[in-house]
Structures are given as C-alpha cells and as structure tokens.
What does this fold into?
Amino acid sequence: MIRIESVTKRYADGTVAVDDLTLDIPDGSITVLVGPSGCGKTTTLRMINRMIEPSGGRILLDGQDLAQQPVTALRRSMGYVIQNAGLFQHRTIVDNIATVPRMLGWDRGRARERARELMDRVGLDATLAKRYPYQLSGGQQQRVGVARALAADPPVLLMDEPFSAVDPIVRKGLQAELLRIQSELGKTIVFVTHDIDEAIKLGNMIAVMRTGGHLAQYAPPDELLSAPADAFVEDFLGTDRGIRRLSFFTSAGLDVTATPIVTADADAAQIAERTLPELPYLLVTDADGKPLGWAKAEDLAPRTDAGDGASTEDGASTADLLPHGRPFVLGQDSLRDALDCAVLSPTGWAVAVDGTGKVVGVTSQETIATAIRGAHAGRATKPAEPDADAPDAADTSAAGPAQAPATDGPAPDAPDGDADAPVKAAR
Amino acid sequence: MNQYFDMPSDLQHSYVGLIGLHLQEALLPVLFGLLIALPLALVCSRFSWFYAPVLWVTTVLYAIPSLAFFVVLLDYTGDSTTTVMIPLTVYSLVLLVPAIVEGTRAVSPDTVAAATAMGFGSLRRFVQVELPIAVPAIMAGLRLAAVSSISLVSVGAIIGNEGALGNLLHDGQIYHRDPLIITSVVTTAVLAIVVDGLLVLAQVLLTPWQPHGRRAARRAARAAAVDEPAAPRDAVTDAVPAALEDAVR
It folds into this structure.
C-alpha cells in the first residue's frame, strides 16, 4: 500500500502545489487522481517516485518511508507512463521496452525476450519490434510506453495522463486494454487524468482534487456519483451522473421476455401466439437466434402466408425490418447499456443477447426503470461497500467478455455465468 | 598538367602529402574540440547557469584573430602544426558547444522525464539518451566546424610552411605560378565538400531512427496509418447507435 501522509509541496516562490494531502492507495487496484489543471495531481504522482520531493509530510510504500530509499532503485521499481509516451526515439521498440531490465543488469537476450513477451501482452504486433518510434502511430507508441513501464514487472505503475494525447477512439481502445492488462497483472496503479469520465471508467478509487492541491473527495466511483461531497465535486462530475451511475448496476437481474421473438419463417399461428398485447412488434431472428430486426405483427403475417420460396420471402421481410440497434449482453453489460438500448430502439424495447450474440429476450423501458429503482433500493440498504474488495471483483470480470467461449449458445433463459460481476470492465 | 600538380621543393610534400597534411591540420582540431565540448556541454546541461559564461568565453576567443594567436603561441609551440591547430581547436568550440547544449536541450521533456522516472542518473541520461537524440544537431555543428576549419588551415602559411594547401597560395605568388593558386583553392573547396559529404553519410548511419529521404518518410506515414486494430472495431460499434438514431427519425 502507498500511504501519502500529510504531504505538502510548496515551491520557493510560495506557490502551494499540494496542501496537506493524506491518501491511502490500496494494493492491486487502480487509484485515479483527477481534477482541473493546477490541482497538484501530477505533482502528487511525481512525489511517489521522488521526481519531486515533498516539502512536508511523508510517503510510505509498504510501511517504508520513500525518502529513506535510494532514488534510482526506487524509480526502477515503479513503472512510469507519460502523456506522449516519451519513448527513446533513437532506440527500437524492443530496446525501448528492454530499458529498465537492461539497467537492472539483465543480459541483452533475456531483456529482449521479456520485451517481446510484453509487446504481445499490450497488443503490439511482433513485426514492430525492430521499428523505431517514428514509424508508429500515437496509440501504438502509448502501448510501447505501457509495455516499457511493465518491463521489470514493478509492483507499482504510475501513469500521468497517459491517454490524453490520443484521439477518442484510440483512447477508448487503450483504456479497455489497460483494464484487461490490469485484470491479468493486478498492479497497484496510480493514474492521473483531468477527464472525470476516464476516472470513472478506470478507477477503483477516485481522488478528486481541487485547485491549490486540496483533496475534495476520495471514494469509489459509484459513491462519488451517488454522493458527491460538495458543490465542487458535483460540478466537476457533470450533469448526467444519475445516468452514468447506472454503469455500476449489473443487468443480471433484469426481467426479459422471450415471447415476442420469432424466426424469419414463422407462420401466422406462431405470430399471433407470440404477439404481446403491449407490444405491436415482433423481434425477428435468423436460424441461429441472432437478431435481424423488428417487424409489425400484421406486416409479418400476410407475407409469410403469401410466399412459398423461402429465400425470396426471407429477403422481402428482412428488408422491411426496423433495425434492432445494438443489443446488450445480459448479465455482462450494465443497466446503463440496457437503458441506452431501449431508448435507442425504434420500439422502445431493448434486445438482450448472450455472450455469443444470440437473443435471450427483450425488455421494455418500464421494466428497466423498475430494475433501476430496485438497484437503488438495494444500494440504499447496503451502504457504501468497503473499497478494498472492489478492485478484485473488477479484475476477475474484465477478462470475461474478451474470452467468452464461442460454444453453442445456451437456452434463451440462461444468461452468462458471472451474473453479479461488476460491469465496469465490460464497458 | 604538371604546372598544377608539381609542388615547389620548399614545401617538402607531394600534392597528395599536402592533402593529407591539410586534413590532419583541419580535422584533428575539430576532434579535439569535440572532446573538449562534450564534457563542457554536460556541465552546462547539468548546471544551466554555466552555459552563458561558457558561450561568452568561446565567442570572445573566436573573435581573436588567428594571427594574434600565432604570435603568442610561437613562443611556446614554435613553427609547427600545433601552433595552427590550437587556435582551430578553440574556434571549433564556438560551434560545437552550442550545438551539443542546444541539441540536448531540445530533447523532448517527455523523453527526459521518462528517462528520469526509469531511474537514469543524470550522467547516464546525458550519455545514453540526450546525446544520441541530439546527434542531428551535433552533426550540423560538426559539419560547420569541419568545413570552416578546412578553409582556415591555409592561414598557417603566414607562420612559415604550416598552411598545408594554403602554402601553395604563397608559393604561387612568389614563384609567379598562378596554376598553383588555382590548385590550392579548388583542392581546398573539394576537400570541404567531400568531408561534408562524409559527415552527412556518417549522420545517416548514426541515426537509423530518423526518417531519411522520401522513401523512409513514406514508410513512416504508412506505419502511422495502420492504427490499432481496436480502432475500426470501436468505430463500427459507435456508428451503429448513430445509424439507428437516424433510422428512428
């Protein structure tokens, strides 16, 4: 654990960058320092590896005062990732990654082998090993930066706005990748960002800092969204925190119905039988149970009767289907995803699928609203979970979606196994 | 042809011998200058206040005419190539020290911070990170120093036969052999061009990490265009709800 104890950083000109900050950073989880520019978040980060020395207070790593430890050894035991990757442009990718192992005295062969292993881990193609940084895109460079920080397998990873300089799509990929890597490695990560959405997406714990180096609130993201400590935090979080908090509620317990679902070749009797009184539409699936789109019951029925040739009839009906939109994965995605699907759906009903993309049911906005009320009630009776166990739970789930086996889909009523896994990682 | 390449006997060198001597007198000072400039630049990068006085001193030394240098040095080093090479070494400093200091200072702060954070001490960081990345800037200074040194060697003719190819200018005058003057000027110019070309070649070989020429630039552009495999996938999933929204309307 990293313990920041009443740390103050005051510069010679009187500027106070960090003011009496006390923070416990738990092991094996991602702690995000977030705040507007000038709030001292980067200063705090740099005091952890002593690139900046505190002018008051102390920082303990596993009970040891950092100030007592040799500075280069300390830094080599902490990975550091910086905004623009800060790669050594004169060294190949593999040698960039091998830097710290080489300094620790590994022989070249072993260090390079380790570097190639890490390239694979961060999702870099092996053919890039002999390239130079200028030959890589920004996103690829940032992956190299992460690999380089992980090279000597340090227990602590310090990340200073690592994804701020890449475009939003690449950033999203890198964030997902970081969560995946963290689920495999379980490092103690201190992550600095000015982007509250990034903080909520990545952090197990979030420290919101305000200008002048004060800590405004230190809480898990769910608690931050539900109970901001003051007007500053509330303002910083933005307007739609109620909606965003839904990201932390699993869709596992959500009621879905498989009734208004038919295959493309359904006959009139099936259509009549499966039409719900409150929903004049039916979801049409292909033979594998994958959703094709919505159709009005009366549009679907005559066409099925009229046509004999299966292919033409199929083509005709799918052409008239309303798009079903992006379905959500029941049990894996959050209530926010479910609500989003329902809001975007032309019928107002969201389509739930399993990990393989087969439809397990559909659900209405009203049903989702009931689930949201239920989730809120559940949280209210169980006050804020202790922070310590949040990280582990998030870790185990992160690998889930990526590795979901493509076996034959289960029956529609069997959602994914890890029903109560936190949904953060899946988003 | 002989009137161009028959060397007067008082030079005690063949044409090729003069070229060798000229290169030695011109390039050794640049080498010595580099060896002096590197530690100076290290100190300047460590203690930035030290750079201004160093720059001031080297600039003042550069302003001293070589003739004045020779007059002082003749008492110590006599009529020798050393007397020519010492001022040339001093002159090279005014080009090399700023080239190294500014070159290493121009290394991106992110790279420097990353190196520091990885546990590089300041000497190791200077030698292994800042200096290699500053090679293009240093080479620019080195090329200038080498070329100006090659042209300055000729001044050594003033203190006797120490100007190498420059001596031909003097001999051409006293023996009324104009072709020797042409030989001197053309050879000096060709030497400067060849040495400069060799230094450019050296730079290309020393910096495989830099895009050189159009082909390399194209390769870099292509590499950058092939982005994360995740990117297009995300783009597609992002596009779906947008398309749906349009469909709803």
